[in-house]
User: Which sequence fits this backbone?
């Protein structure tokens, strides 16, 4: 995640909290970020591709559907980044659902 954060900073982009180091004041724990992002994307587009890469366990925690040793594994921070990017794009395009 720190390499992605450095690349984003180098290109002038804001770095989402889930990519920041844990000691950073703006850090968001990945499990909290992925839950919020997945919920927001389900409301916007329940068939979004990145949602198919996630599974929710019986305690409500999200995990990559493939284990780390599987060649199809997508790390949670990459799924979160994809959701974050697509949600921001939808917000910029005015496609976000209205808040109650």
Assistant:
């Amino acid at each position: 995640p720190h390499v992605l954060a450095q690349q984003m900073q180098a290109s002038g982009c804001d770095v989402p909290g889930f990519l920041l180091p844990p000691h950073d004041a703006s850090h968001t724990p990945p499990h909290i970020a992925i839950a919020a992002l997945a919920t927001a994307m389900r409301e916007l587009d329940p068939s979004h591709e990145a949602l198919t890469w996630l599974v929710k366990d019986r305690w409500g925690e999200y995990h990559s559907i493939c284990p780390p040793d599987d060649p199809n594994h997508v790390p949670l921070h990459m799924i979160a980044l994809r959701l974050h990017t697509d949600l921001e794009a939808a917000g910029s395009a005015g496609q976000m659902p209205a808040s109650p």
In short: The mean pLDDT is 86.
